[in-house]
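Quick start: what a row looks like.
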Amino acid sequence: MFRPKVPTMPQPTGLVTPPAVVEPISVVQHAPAAPAPMSPPAPTRPTVQLTPGTVVALVGGGTAVVLVVGAVLVSMLLAVAITGASVAICALVIRSLITSEAKHR
């Protein structure tokens, strides 16, 4: 009931293509052509213009991200510290119980 059933595939499904044969190609060197005069490339996209409003929005967004990430990291560090302290207290209590049990025998 709890054993996995592995499906069997008697025949491959899909198309099977034979491996491609690579033939060597001869390399022919040509004389270098005269270089064409360089013209400045046409801009493919418009430049980004930052207005004071967008700068304020970017700074505010970045500040919010830093504050949120910092709060998360500090809370995780605090959780680890509290867990470590509680484990240490439990270890001390268990050790004292074991030593007091051994002294009474």
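That is the whole record. The CA atoms of residues 85 and 91 lie 10 Å apart. The longest helix spans residues 52-104.
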